[in-house]
Amino acid sequence: MTVANRIETGTKINVNQLNLYYGENHALHNIDLSIEQNTIAALIGPSGCGKSTFLRTLNRMNDLIENVRINGDIIIDGQNIYDPTTDVVSLRKKVGMVFQRPNPFPMSIYDNIAYGPRIHGIKKKAVLDEIVERSLQQAALWDEVKDRLDKSALGLSGGQQQRLCIARLLAVEPDVLLMDEPTSALDPISTLKVEELTQVLKDKYTIIIVTHNMQQAARISDYTSFFLNGVLVESDKTDKIFTTPSDQRTEDYITGRFG
Amino acid sequence: MTVANRIETGTKINVNQLNLYYGENHALHNIDLSIEQNTIAALIGPSGCGKSTFLRTLNRMNDLIENVRINGDIIIDGQNIYDPTTDVVSLRKKVGMVFQRPNPFPMSIYDNIAYGPRIHGIKKKAVLDEIVERSLQQAALWDEVKDRLDKSALGLSGGQQQRLCIARLLAVEPDVLLMDEPTSALDPISTLKVEELTQVLKDKYTIIIVTHNMQQAARISDYTSFFLNGVLVESDKTDKIFTTPSDQRTEDYITGRFG
Amino acid sequence: MSSYADQLTDSLEQARKEPSKGNRWTRGQHRNDRIMRIIFVGSAILVSVIIFSIIAFVGWQGVKTFSAVSPSEFFFSTDWTPSKDKFGAFPFLYSTMLLTLLSVVMSLPLALAGAVFMAKIAPSWVREILRPATDLFVGIPSVVYGLIGLTVIVPFLAKFNEGFGYGILPAAIILAIMIMPTILSISEDAIRSLPGRLEEASLALGATRWQTIWRVLLPAARPGILTGVILGMGRAIGETMAVFMVIGNSPQMPKSLLSSTTVLTTAVVKDMGNTHYGSTWNNALFLMALVLLLISLLLIIVIRIVAKRSELK
Amino acid sequence: MTSKTTDRIATIFFWATGLIIVLLLAWFLIRILGDGLPMLSWNFITGRPSEVRAGGGVGPQLFNSFYILFLSLLFSLPIGIGAGVYLAIYAKKNQFTDFIRVSVEALASVPSIVFGLFGFLLFVNWMGLKFSILGGSATLALLNLPVLVRVTEVALRSVPESYWEASLALGSTQWQAIRKVLLPAALPSLMTGITLVAGRALGESAILIYTAGLSVSRYLPDFNIFSMGETLSTHLWYVQSEAIVPDAKNIAKGSAALLLLVVLAFNLLIAIPSRMIQKKLSGGK
Amino acid sequence: ACGSKAQTPADTKQGAAPAPAATTPAAQAPAIEGTVTASGSSALLPLVKAAADDFMKKNAKVTINPTAGGSGTGLKNVADGTSDIGSSDIEAGPEYKDKGLVDHIVAVAPFALIVSKDVNVDSLTKQQAADIYTGKITNWKDVGGKDAKIIVVHRPDGSGSRALVKQIVLGGAEFTKDGVTQESSGAVATTVGQTQGSIGYVDTPYLNDTIKAVKFDGVAFSKDAIKDGKYPLYGIEHMYTKGEAKGATKAFLDYIMSADFQGKSVEELKFLPANLLKK
Ligand SMILES: Nc1ncnc2c1ncn2[C@@H]1O[C@H](COP(=O)(O)OP(=O)(O)OP(=O)(O)O)[C@@H](O)[C@H]1O
Ligand SMILES: Nc1ncnc2c1ncn2[C@@H]1O[C@H](COP(=O)(O)OP(=O)(O)OP(=O)(O)O)[C@@H](O)[C@H]1O
Ligand SMILES: [Mg+2]
Ligand SMILES: [Mg+2]
Ligand SMILES: O=P([O-])([O-])[O-]
After folding, report:
1. Assigned domain for C4 exists
2. What is the pairing mode between strands B68-76 and B11-22?
3. What distance in Å separates the CA atoms of residue D220 and residue D231, rounded to the nearest whole number?
4. Does C269 lie in the same domain as C148?
5. Cβ D109–C209 below 8 Å, yes or no?
6. Would you kindly state where each structural domain of chain D is located, as residue ranges?
7. Best label site of A106, C189, E252, E264, fewest CB within 10 Å?
8. Which of A191, A218, A255 lies closest to B258 in CB terms?
9. pLDDT, tens digit (0-9, with 9 covering 90-100), for D45-67
C-alpha cells in the first residue's frame, strides 16, 4: 500500500485554528492539521514544544488540568469533539491513548485487559476471556503472558508493560490510537517490537505518535508534523520532511542544530 | 588549537578496570578510559547505559548511594581518588559537577555563587563580591543578572539557572567539570549559550559531558565515548566516531537504529 | 590579557603562601561535621532509649500484678471490684475494642469520601479551605470534644434511652470526629501520591471519574488508606479525657451501646491518682497501661507489614 | 443505571461529604466560639482565677499554657530535629536505622495517658519535681518528640535531592549542606509541622493533670519552673468537673473559646511567616 | 568581689525579715514565704480554697496550691511527698500506718443525697437509699415516685465520699456497678442536674438550685440535726501532713484552725466547725 492509496480513504481528524492556553501560557498557536484514516502520523519537535499538549487535545485529556483554555475546532469523524454536547467518555473510548511511561494498573494482567470492557458493561466471563486473548494477541504479547494472566502486571518488563497497555487499549476497540513517546522508556529490543506492532495496527487504526527519536519517525510514519514553541511549523509526508523540508527551522532541527 | 596539540598537555584522568555494582546490578563493566587535560570528552549512549553512573564515579557522588560497590582505579592528577586516604570533600571541590536539571539553591543569586567560597572559608565581603562577579562573567551571565543579585535564583529562566549553576561551580575553582546532560532541560537558545560556554571554558578546564543529543556531542566535544549496557564500546576522537566508528554497535546507535 | 594571567598567578601564589589557613578551615569543618553527626546519632539513640524505658518501666510495674492476680483472671474475668481484690479487666478490654471498632467504622465513610473529594474532585480553592479545616479538627483540644459530647450528644441520646445517654455510642461519635482528620489526611496523601498515569490510563480507556476512583484509585491506595485507619485506631484507643466525660465509667461489661462502661484509658485515669504506688490495684492499672502500649505497638507492626507488602508488589 | 448516572450521583455524594465536613467544623466553631466569646473580656483573659466567688479569670492558665509549650519545645526540638536529621540524611538502610525508626513510631503511638503515668512517676515522684511546670513540660516533650522527628524527617525529605547533591558537589561537608541549604529550605514545612505539634500540645490535658497539677501560682507571670502549672485545657477539665464557683459553666465556655482562639492564632502566627519564607525561597514564583 | 557574691544571699535573707515589718506595720510576725500544695478530698476543696484565698491575702509571699483528686489521692500524695498537705474525708487506712502522717481535723463536712429535679421523691429511708445504691431498686416507683428508671451517679473508688456512703448508708455492702461514675463532687452535681431520674451524693457546699437534696430517714440536713445525731450523713475532714507541719504549711493549718476562721468562714462555706461534735 502506498501513501497515495490511503489518502483516498478520507480524512479522519481535522484540526482548525486550535489554540490552547495553560493559564497565561499560550502553549498551542493556531494549529491546522488534518490526519488521514489508517495512516501513522508522527509529531516531532524539541522538548516543551507542545507535542504532548496537542496529542492530548485529541481525546480531551487536557480537560483534567485546571486552568486550561482551548479554542478552535477538532473534528473527528465529522463531529466536533469540543462541542458541549460531546460525551467525553465515549470520545475517549474511541480515541485511545498510550503513554510515555507504561502505566499498567496494579492488578493482574487479565484484569488490566478486562478493565476497559468491564467498565463498558461487559460482565460475561466467556466474552471477557475472548477479548483478553484477542487483544493480547493483537499486541503480540499473548505468547509471553498466557500462562501468567492472573499475575500482577507490574511484574512484567518495561517493554511487555507497554505492549500490555496497548493491548488494554485495543480491548476497548478504539478507532484512533494516540501514542506519546511510547518507546522512550524502553530498551532497543522492546522498542523494535512496539515499532513493528504499529505497522501491523495501522491497517485497522489511525495512529498518531509523538516521538523524540527522528529515526523512529522516519522509520514508521507516513506523515510527520514538526512543532516548535507551540507552532506547527511544517506537516508533510515523512520522506519529504526528512529529505527536503520546506522550512529552515525544520531542517535545522532534523539535522540536529538544536533540540 | 587542534586536538593533537592538547594531547601533549598530558593525561588528566585515568580510569583502569572500573567496575560498579548497584547491589546485584552490575552497572559498569571493566571501564578503561583516559581523558586529556583541557579537552572536552563527550559520553553518549542510550538511556540506562551507565553514562551518569560513570560520570558520578569521577567525583565520588556515587558514595552517597547505598549498596554501591566500586572496584578498579580512577587516577586524577596522579592520585587514586578511591584511595582510603582521599579527602572526598576536596576531591569534589576539584572535580565539579553540573547536573541535568539546573539545581540552584533557594537563595539569592549572590548567595548561590558565594556558597562555595563561603563553605571553603572565605568570609570577606570584598573577596566574595569579586568572586561572584568573575564567576558570573565567566559563565556569560553577569550582564543578565547584575542588577538582581539579591533576588532568588529560582526566579531565573531554565537556561539562566543552568548557567548560574556553572558559575556557582566556577566560583570554587575546580579543575575538572563534569556535566550530566546539562542542556537536556533547556530550550534551543539556552542550549546554544551553554554550548558556547563550554567552548570558552575548555581552555582552563577539563570537561566531561554526558549528552543524549549526538549532534551536540559532534558539535562541541574533542573525544567521544560510546557506552552500551554498562560497557564502554568505543572511545575515540569525535570526528572519527561520527564518521568511521570501528564498532558496529556504535554505528547502529549514531545512525539511529536504536536509542 | 596580561592582567588575567597576573591574576591567575597571584591567586596561585596566594594559595601556596597560606596553605595552612585553608587546611585549618577545612579541618575545622571536618571536625564540626563529625561532631554534628555524633549529635544526630545521639538524638536518634535517645529516642530509642526513651521508648524502651517507658516500656520497661510500665511493663515492670504492670507485670507485678501477676504476683497477686492470675493472668487468666486479669484478662478474662469480668469482675472488677478492687475493694474485694477482684481484678478482672476483661470489661475494659472488651469496651476498648468495641469502642475503637465502632469509632473507626463510623469515621471511615466520611473520612474516605472526604479524602477522595479533596484529592480528586474538589477544585483547588475548595481544597485550600478544606485542608486547614481538617487540620483545625486536630487542633480542637480533646477536653473541648468531651465538653461537646457531654453537653450536646449525651443529652440528645438520652432522649432515646429512658434518659440515659452515656456509654460507648456517644464516645464513638466523638472519637469518630476526632480521628476523621487523621484517616482523611493520610488517605488523601495516599490517593494523591498515586502516579497520575493510573488515572490517565483509566480515563483514556473511557472510564468515568467514579469508575476510575472506585476501580483503580481506591484499590491502588489501599495500603495507605489502611495505614490511616490503623493510625486512627491508635488515636481512638489512646484517647482519654473526651471519652472519660461521656462513657459513664462503670467497671462492667456494656449491656448495650448506651450503657455505662469503662475503657482501658479511663480505667487508668479514674483510679491512678488515688491508688497507692505498689499496691496490687495500682499495679493492675500499670498493667492496663502496658496492655494499651502493647496494642499500640501491635498496630505499628501491622502498619509496617502492610507497608512492606505494598512495597513488594 | 448507566455509568454516567452513577458518576453524577457519586460526584454529588462527594461534594456533599466535603460540605458535611465543613459544616461539622463550622458547627463546632460556632458552638464553641458562640458560647464562649461573650464570656471573654480583658478581665477574664488576664485576671487571676477566683476560687470561690464568681468572676475570676484565666490569666495564669493562659500564661502557663504558653510557658509549658515553650519549655516542652525547648526540650524536644533539639532532640527531635536531631533524630529527624539523622533519619532523613545519615541513616543507611540497616538494622540500627530500622530500630530507631520503629522506636520513633512506637513512641508516636504511645497513648498520652501512658506518658502521663511515666512522667508522673519519673519526674513528679522520683526526681522530686512535684506537680510543676518543669515536670509537665518535660513529659509533654516526650509526647512532642516523635512527632517532631517525623516532621523533620518529612520536611527534609521533601527538599529536592538536587540541593543536597549540588552542595556536596561543591565540596561542602554534610553538616554544611544540612545547615546552609537543607534546613533553610525545609524551614516552611518544618514550621507548619511545629505548629501542628504546638496545637496538639496546647490542647493536651491527660498528661498535664498528672504532672503539672491543677493549680496556679499566685504571681503572674511566674517564670519559676517549680511552681504548679495548670494550663488552659487542664483548667477547662477542672472547671467543668470539680469547680464550685457559681459561674463554672461560663468559665468553661470562655476557656474553650479562648483555647480555640489561641490554637487558631498560633496557626496563623506561624503560617504567615512560613508562607513569606516560602515565597522568598521560591523567588516569588 | 568574690566574697561579696557569696555573701549577698545571706544578707538579703537576714534583711528580709524586718523589711516587711517596717513597710507593713500591721504584720506582727515575720513574713512567711513558700509554696504549700494541698490535694485530696474534693469535699473539702471549697474550704481549702477559701482558706487559701484569705491566707494569701494576708501573706503576700505565700502561694497555696489547693487541688482535689479525691481523698485517696490526697493521702497518697502527702505520703510520697508530692503534696505538703493531703486532705481526706476518711481516716488514713492501715497502709499509711508507718508513713509518719500527722492528722489535723479541720471541719465536719455534711453531705446529702441529691436527685434531679424531675424526681418527685423528697425523702428516702436508709434502707431505700441502700437498695438503690446496691442496685436492688431500679425504678423510682418502688420508692414512691413516678415510673422512671433510676440512674445512679457514683464517685470513683478513691473518693472519701463514696467510702462514707458505703459505710454509713450501705453498711459496707458493695455498690451496684450500674450508673455513671464522675471524677469529683462538682461533676456529680452537674451530672445529676442534667440527667433525668438520677441520684447522687455530694457534700453540702456543692448543693445548688439545679439539683434537689432529699431528706434522709425523714431528716433534712442542718447543723442542729447533725449536732443532735439525727442526720448521720457527714464526714470528719482530715488534713494530713508528713511529719509535723513546718513553716508556711504550719501557718496555713494554724490559720484554718484559728478561732476566726473556724468561727465564721467554715459555716459560711456550709461546713461545720471541727469541734462541733466534741462539744
Ligand atoms: N499541566 C501543565 N500546566 C501548565 N503548563 C504546562 C502543562 N503541561 C505542559 N505545559 C507547558 O506547555 C508547553 C508544552 O508542553 P508539552 O508537554 O506539550 O511539550 P512536549 O513537546 O510534549 O515536550 P516533551 O518532549 O518534553 O514531552 C511547555 O512549555 C510546558 O511547560
Ligand atoms: N541509584 C541507583 N540504584 C540502583 N540502580 C541504579 C541507580 N542509578 C542508576 N541505576 C541503574 O544503573 C544503570 C545505569 O544508569 P544510569 O543512570 O547511569 O544511566 P544513563 O546512561 O545515565 O541513562 P540516562 O540517559 O537515562 O540518564 C541503569 O540500569 C539504572 O537502572
Ligand atoms: Mg511530551
Ligand atoms: Mg543519566
Ligand atoms: O473527693 P472526696 O472528698 O470524695 O474524697
Report:
1. no
2. antiparallel
3. 13
4. yes
5. no
6. 56-281
7. E264
8. A191
9. 888 877 667 777 888 889 999 99
**C235 closest CA partner among D149, D199, D116, D111:** D111
Contact D124, D139 (CB under 8 A): no
Q: Which residues of B touch D (CB under 8 A)?
A: 59, 61, 64, 66-67, 89-94, 96-97, 99, 101, 103-107, 115-116, 118-120, 151-156, 165, 168-169, 172
Superfamily designation of domain B11-254: P-loop containing nucleotide triphosphate hydrolases (3.40.50.300)
Inter-chain touch D282–B154, beta carbons under 8 Å: yes
**Ligand 2 in contact with B49 (CB < 6 A)?**
yes
> Is residue C128 located within the same domain as residue C201?
yes
Its CATH architecture, for the domain D56-281, is: Orthogonal Bundle (1.10)
ipTM: 0.81
**Alpha carbons E44 and E51: distance in angstroms, whole number:** 11
Cβ proximity of D267 and C132 under 8 Å: yes
Of C193, E187, A160, the C-alpha closest to D157 is: C193
Amino acid at C91: P
Ranges of each domain in chain B? 11-254
The model's pTM is 0.83
Residue D219, chain E, CB below 8 Å: the answer is yes
Q: Take residue D97 and report the three cell numbers written for it.
A: 536505622
Of C158, C165, C274, nearest to E76 by CB-CB distance is C274
Query: Is D37 strand, coil or helix?
Result: helix
pLDDT tens digits for A99-157?
A: 888 889 989 999 999 999 998 888 999 999 999 999 998 888 898 898 999 998 988 88
In contact, C167 and C255? CB cutoff 8 Å: no
Residue C256 lies in a domain: yes
Supply C196's cell numbers. Answer: 497520575
Residue C5 is assigned to a structural domain of this protein: no
Question: Which residues in chain B show pLDDT less than 70?
Answer: 1-9, 185-188, 256-259
Say whether both C127 and C221 belong to one domain: yes
Q: Helices C124-139 and D183-203 meet at what angle, rounded to 10? A: 50
A204 residue type, one letter: K
The answer to whether residue C11 scores a pLDDT higher than 70 is no
Q: Is B121 part of the contact surface with chain C (CB cutoff 8 Å)?
A: yes
Which among B46, B184, B187 has CB closest to A188? Answer: B46
- Using CA atoms, how far apart are residues D61 and D71, in angstroms rounded to an integer? 15
**In the prediction, which pLDDT does B17 show?**
93
Looking at the structure, tell me whether residues C291 and C144 fall in a common domain: yes
Helix extents (H) in chain C: 2-17, 19-63, 71-76, 90-116, 124-139, 142-148, 154-158, 168-192, 196-204, 209-211, 218-220, 222-238, 241-246, 264-272, 280-312
Give A50's DSSP letter: S
8-state DSSP, A151: S
Q: Is residue C2 included in any domain, yes or no?
A: no
Helix (H) / strand (E) containing A82? none
In a shared domain, residues C130 and C231: yes
E161 lines ligand 5 (CB under 6 A): yes
Give residue-wise pLDDT tens across range E152-195.
999 888 788 898 999 999 998 989 988 898 888 888 888 898 88
pLDDT digits (tens, 9 = 90+) for D186-201: 988 888 888 888 888 8
Asked if D95 and C247 touch (Cβ cutoff 8 Å), the reply is no
Say how many Å lie between the CA of residue C221 and the centre of ligand 3.
27
- C206 neighbourhood in chain A, CB within 8 Å: 89-94, 116, 119-120, 172
Q: Measure B50 CA to ligand 2 centroid, in angstroms.
A: 6
Q: Counting atoms of ligand 1 from 1, which one is nearest the CA of A100?
A: 27
**Enclosing domain of residue C45:** 13-67
CATH, residue C202? 1.10.3720.10
Taking chain D (285 residues) in runs of 10, the rounded mean pLDDT of each run is: 83 92 90 88 83 77 91 94 92 84 88 89 85 91 92 90 88 90 89 86 86 78 82 85 74 88 81 75 56
